C-alpha cells in the first residue's frame, strides 16, 4: 500500500498537526438564566442539571468566572414572575424590570463582556407565545407584534446590550428592529437573528427553566417545519437583506446540514444554538454512566465548527472553557 491514511493519525502530535477544526473560548456564548431572587441565589433547574436561575448578584459572580476562563459573550434569559406576565409582554420594557436591571448591572461591572439580549415576547407573555396573541382567535399576530418587539429591542439596547437577538420568527422583524434601533441612536448595536429557528421539541427544558411554554397551541405557525431546508435559505436571505449582522440556526444537532448550507451560501457569520434539550440528553446519559460526558461535549462542539458555525451558543461553554484551561 502506498497510501495509508493511518499515518496521519499515528500519534497525538501528528493528529494535532493535521486537525482541521478547533473550538476555542472565542467561539462560545454561554446562555444564562436570571431571576428576581434576592442576594446571591442559585436556583437549580430540574431539567438542566448543573444550570441555575441566577439572581443578579449571582449572575455577576458567574460572569466574573466566565470571563476569567476567557469566555467573552453571554446570552441572557429572564425568568419573569408569573404575576408580571401579561398579553403585551409589558415587563420587557420596564426600566425597573429584571431584564433591564440584569443587562445594566452586567455592563456596568464588565464593560467588555458581550451581552446578547433575546427579543421575543414569550418570557414576559401570559400567553407564552413569541408574538401577540389575538384573544378572540388565538392567532399569533405578525404585524401587531412588531412594535412590541421593536420597543423591547430598544429597551435592551438602552440597558446596554451589545447585540439584540430576535428569536421570535415574526416576518419583517429584523428590518423593523434595525430601523427602531437606528432611530434611537443605537446604530452600533448588532442584530443576531434567529433566522432559521425550527419548531422543535428540544426546547423543552428551556421552557421549564423560564416557565414560558405556550398556554395554548404550539409555535408551528411561526417557527419552521423541521422537514425544510430551502425555507431556511429564504429566511436567512431575508434577514440579511433586512440588516442582520449574524444569522443563527437553531436547534443544532438535528440541523447540522442547515448550518453547512447557510455557511456555504452566505457571507455573514453563522451561529449555532446547541439547545437545552441537547444539553439535557448528554447530562442524563452520562449521569447513568452510558456516555462519557466530556468526550461527547467536545465531539458535539467540534461538530458545530466543522459544519460551518463560527459562533456556538452552548450550555456546556463554562465546562468546556474549564477543560481547555486545565486539561487533566
Ligand atoms: C424564546 C427562545 C426559546 C429558546 C431561545 N429563545 C424557546 C422557544 O422558542 O420556545 C430555546 C433555547 C433552548 O432550548 O436552549 N423565543
Describe this structure in words.
This protein is α/β, with parallel strands linked by helices and 328 residues long. It has one domain: Aldolase class I (TIM Barrel, Alpha-Beta Barrel). Helices cover 37% and strands 17% of the residues. The chain contains eleven helices and twelve strands. The strands form two sheets. It has an eight-stranded parallel beta barrel with strand order 1-4-5-8-9-10-11-12, surrounded by eight helices. The chain has a two-stranded antiparallel ribbon with strand order 6-7. The longest helix is centred in the last third of the chain and has 15 residues. The radius of gyration is 20 Å and the shape is globular. Bound molecules: ligand PBG. The site of ligand PBG has 11 residues, from helix 6. Ligand PBG binds next to helix 6.
Instruction: Tell me the CATH superfamily.
Output: Aldolase class I
Number of strands: 12
**What can be said about the biggest beta sheet?**
8 strands, parallel, barrel
Mean pLDDT: 97
Number of domains: 1
Ligand inventory reads: ligand PBG
Shape: globular
What is the C-level CATH assignment?
Alpha Beta
Give the gist of this structure:
This protein has helices at residues 12-18, 56-68, 98-109, 146-159, 173-183, 204-210, 230-241, 256-265, 276-287, 293-307, 317-325, and strands spanning 28-34, 42-44, 52-54, 73-78, 114-119, 132-133, 140-141, 163-166, 190-197, 246-250, 270-274, 311-314. It has 328 residues and is of the alpha/beta class.
